[in-house]
């Protein structure tokens, strides 16, 4: 698939999903409806219509493709696409507040504009709305889809809890980090990749295989995100240099480097242990972060993470082979995976 | 029913529900499992087992009784009782944070002890867990129950949003206030009163009638709570004198007094409008609050609210007549309503 056809795929997903998503958000009582519209980029801070960047909309595209993988029309996947987007945005609203992040998609975050209470309330409302939208379908398949969505939602919350708790720990194993990233990024992509199929009547085995595709795609994406979090170009990522090191994230390159052994690994461990006793690392110079990044690379953390991204990608693509689906749908799922994994920011 | 048999009813509900609730909370990843156990009163701040006050447990008792109203054993209602308790406690965790409340059940609130992020995360997790527990039953009736629970959860969130927004408005109508209280208090009691019956295979009509009972019981409870919020004895309520007036709550006695017309109503309206321009009402003297309370009473707000509590109670009890249920179950639902409505704190 060409890059253009992936863009078209994402755009078609948006066209089918956005009206239903807007109608869902409009159910909230004031001022939550306005706050939600601001969060999704449909209005600006003054309430005027905006043509906002609602994100890449990979999840809706996956949900519609997964309906087609089960032989159903993309429309069958729409309630699933909307529900997954609602859960994704619930987590953004709450995570931005918990992490104190002031910017999202180049705009002030909801807690920054409308206050913490609205960020909590609207997040809560979007999570509940997601289940409501699905269960309103009133079918047995909608019940199956809701059960998978609820499990994914719980894992998403587990992942955020683990991410926060890891920041306060000196050591995290590679296994723990992969589990956290699987919860935080893999679980909802897994759900997005299977929910349309479930609504289209797919077998549990096919739904599980599609979940595997999405789960490992999420882990591949996250491995690359972890690389960009340290070595990404600020001009393209829109973040500070050494962003994850500044936040003391126990991301994959860091934990892999610490687990590798050898002199660079040991030196890195000593530095990070000393850092943990000094909460003011904003005062660190560029050179001090660059030195830590160099040690991570020397210990093999960068190369291991890069290979891990490729391994997870291969596992994701292999999972598709067990599902009997139209060839063009298979190609689109591969094309979307390429788009998600090969990126500069 | 005697007071003793109501206490026994509540205790039996706790005995059936608490082990399942504890097992559900234990699924959360650390440190959320500990934070949840603290919130439910099972451990103290140092992690030692505690014999905490987990609340009156009216909702679980209603859920088990509603299973019996459908001719099923109380055990059939247990997943519903647990799910409703989880949603109730999700809302307590988030509301305490949004409202800045530092005490709940005579203990420091979760955000005060474990920080705002844990209050948000564990609240989120309990909401998701509620749906998970129900859907794991894997039956069509569990799907119906989850749909009702999700609708109730959304109303609960709507009610909290309305409550917060009303505090910033000068005027709220009696109708708006009743709608807010119906969402905030009625909806989840309605769900508790029907969810066991739904799990026991009750018809939609019977489930709706049981919801009506719970909804109006909630409104009756809330009307009395609003009276105690102004005229309650601090020694029994555990709150400050004139508690709701200090918080500028647009509670039923206030909005009814403002809507009544006449000289006391007008004088009250002028005072509250002036108050709204002065955010520092902590500096008000006891006499100033007492004067506002006297005006509310003189305008008829106290008497109207007291009558409203009786009207809502009568509507609740009448709703039970449309459901064909064992006589002893009917009597227990009436006994529980009496217990909920007649109280001193």
UniProtKB/TrEMBL annotation, chains A, B:
GO terms for molecular function: metal ion binding; prenyltransferase activity. InterPro entries: Isoprenoid_synthase_dom_sf, Polyprenyl_synt, Polyprenyl_synt_CS. One of its GO terms (biological process) is isoprenoid biosynthetic process. It holds the Pfam family polyprenyl_synt. PROSITE patterns: POLYPRENYL_SYNTHASE_1 (PS00723). The keyword Metal-binding applies. The keyword Lyase does not apply. Keywords: Magnesium, Metal-binding, Transferase. Belongs to the FPP/GGPP synthase family. This is Geranylgeranyl diphosphate synthase, type I.
